[in-house]
Amino acid sequence: MAQGSLPTTRRGLLAGAGALAVAPGLASAAVNVADAPVVDPAGALETVSPYGAHQAGIVTPRPANGVVASFHVLAADPASLDRLFRRLTDRIVFLTHGGPIPETDPRLPPPDSGILGPVVNPDALTITVGLGASLFEADWLAPHRPRVLSRMTRFHNDALDADICHGDMLIQFSANTQDTAVHALRDVLKNLPDALVLRWAQAGNVPVLPPIPGAPPESARNLLGFRDGSANPDSADEALMQRVVWVGSDNAEPAWATGGSYVAVRIIRNLVERWDRTPLGEQERIIGRAKMSGAPLDRLDAHESVTPDLAADPDGAITPLDAHIRLANPRTPESEASLMLRRPFNYVNGVLRNGQLDQGLLFICFQSDLDRAFIAVQRRLDREPLEEYIKPVGGGYFFALPGFSATGGDYLGRTLIAAIDPTSQVSSQSATPVPVRY
Asked: pTM of the full predicted structure?
């Protein structure tokens, strides 16, 4: 797996930060309601607002490229965590809006990597920040841990590599082009070296399919050749997203977490050589859909958006009882509680030492309750026939922070900081405004 790792103790981190190896996987390889995108013909000036009640990059339309990066957080107290959040917000605001790179003395390191040229274009960039369970192990943070946030545990088919699991903070970078996502990651690493240390990272991409007039939208294909996302809930349905994705007052979460969302990330290797030698009919029975069209097996003349009538096939004569789509979503009143919003990317990392291709799915999903959604679905999928062809090797669970406002000096993570020590924090109405600057 193409990732880099460091010692897991913070003492080891401080000693080893300079020796970090950035993931070779990065060499391989979305709109908030507060602000509609502005698009030029080439897409480079497409701006997605970072502001709003929720972070961008969750219900935002998925662009073609993404990178997820997990970090150790070096904050030792509320004040240093507050500084991290403010500085990170500063970078998010600049990178998502773009601007010229300032000139500098040639005798000094340049202020920017330069991979985007003299002007940083927004390129539909979104930056989404989540916090891991390990961050809340500190005494001063433990009382504020989101209710169901935990470390990802091993499921039946997992072969988890500790070096590419978990982390104190997860940042998801999504953009039209790979260079923009990688540039943003490098910008964060350059500007916050005393606050964040990279633990692991994985890049991915996915085709962006243009809509066909008069036809239902199509899902992109994963590297098994099947459409991925056919039964995804509609991210444009605000009422549905409030129920499925966003933490609200009815979730019994800490008040500071309102407007956030749980994130499950899974790096799932596809055993593509074995899959490509499997008969087509068997592949379709394992998944529960037609490979080319995405139609359910009981409606082969239909579109992928058509829902299979599983109740009319109680014995699994058409859609096998252990088909992936049937186990993941049995389409019963009880399984309605397990809905989640998937936002995955495909990844290609090269070749393993055994000569097999290292390819698969960078699975990302968002939900208001991790136990009720992703974990419940994964337990239903344990020992499914698809396990013969996939192997989860990394990832973790995180809590995506609530959004932040463009006014009053608000910043990402302010509600958590205020919950830790309300007497020591200024309100969002009097805080120093976050500047848009390089």
From this structure: 0.89
